[in-house]
Design goal:
The chain is an alpha/beta fold. The protein is built from 16 helices and 16 strands. The chain is globular and about 60 Å long. The two termini are 30 Å apart.
Length: 505
Amino acid sequence: MTLNRRDFLVGSSLAAGALAASASHGDCIRPLRTRAVGEKPTVGMIGMGQQMMGVLMSQFMGQDVIIKVVCDCDKARREAAAKRVNTVYAGRKIPSVCTAEADWRKVVADPGIDMVCVATPDHWHATITCAALKAGKDVYCEKPLTYNIEEAKMVLAASAKYGRLVQCGAMQRSSPEFRSACEIVANGLIGEVKECDCSFGGPSCPHRFFDNPENAEKEGAPNPDVDWDMWLGPSAYTPYSDQLSPRGPCKTYPMFWRYDDYFGSGACGDWGAHHLDIAQWGFGKDDESPVKVIASTAPHSAIAKHGGRRQSGLSIVYADGKRINHIAGGWFSTIFYGTEGIVACARNRFALWLGKGVAPDNKLRAALSEGTFDGMRKIGFWNVNPWALKNDKNYKLSPACDRSMLEALNKGIKEVDLKNAKVKLYKTANGHVDDFVKCFHSRQQPCSRAGVGCHSAILCQMCNTSYMYDSGFDWDPATNTFANGTGDAHWLGRQYFRHGWKIEA
């Protein structure tokens, strides 16, 4: 792992904070569990939906760890997950039995568990993460790391207070196209970069427990496999809905709760957590919040479920004038505009132009997306979308689609030499989960540490808040609260009014 000076100072600052917390909180920082010689670290997995079953479980089983327990308030899901783990371990002749648990609090309290992986709906993330940190566990938690801004501040404080590691599941930081784009920006290879576009969908929607009013009775039929009270947890009460919690083991990503005010923050938290994270990485803002959100002036949505909310068009501004624009559409999820070039990236997509800088507008954005922009010298254009190739008959593969260009950047080419660049961003060797497990052993801060994940979550929630209340606002980055008489403090958190649930940081 290569760290630049900024990374070193941030890591040192976090370590100093942890030491200070240790001194002021006595026994807050617990020593790591003593394992027998040859004993592997253990993992508790909480939230057995598609992300856990389809991605994270396989990646953890590829590490030198033991999944000791799987947890979900849905009986069908937790039993299917335990069966899968035990079947794999039996095939590998691993003498371990994975148990199934209904209550995440028992997982967190288990002294025999070293680390916890959290992939529940967003409204549970911070509560479970902080409880696990307090119990002495390292935590891998899916993005967005928190459901609101107050929770982001609590997770950051808890990580330092209890001296435990947090890895946010912002996996794009482990992909070369994103790291290369951010290194180009960080090294000034496209000049000064003041503006960036992030493309993702709209905000959350006003709560409803059914998808189609005509199907409400069917969608709300009782499900004896689910402890619905536990599924809701600290959120406001709503009747059971199999749109919110699909019946049986998950085979797809349930989007319904992600777009519900009670449980998620729409695409602002879903995809925004990925793409805004890359924007802050490229801008060097991993530990800094903005100073302003400029409200969107786009038309209000006419789609009933959107509740009239605008779906894109706001801008986020930092103290030094750097600006992130939320746009809709296009093949590139993050585009950096420099005084001497443009670099664009997305999953399986990367493009680079060099030349005199231009101000972005929708015509330029369309040309960048299609690779037809000719206002600068095009160094390379790589655009492979596996999903579109399979599912979209109108999708056309770029004739300049060549990953070797991206690989050449990191070996050093005449126009843009990343091989000898001074600033080297954090590079994971074998992906996000592997990085987390390695850091468990080394005690170094992981790629998407608590500060990274929390500041990314703050960006997501600032966006969603602006759309929810149709308002721009000024921001105090030192305290992460509204400034200059703008905004409303009630927008930053929520009342944990159900059964006394609260975050204990």
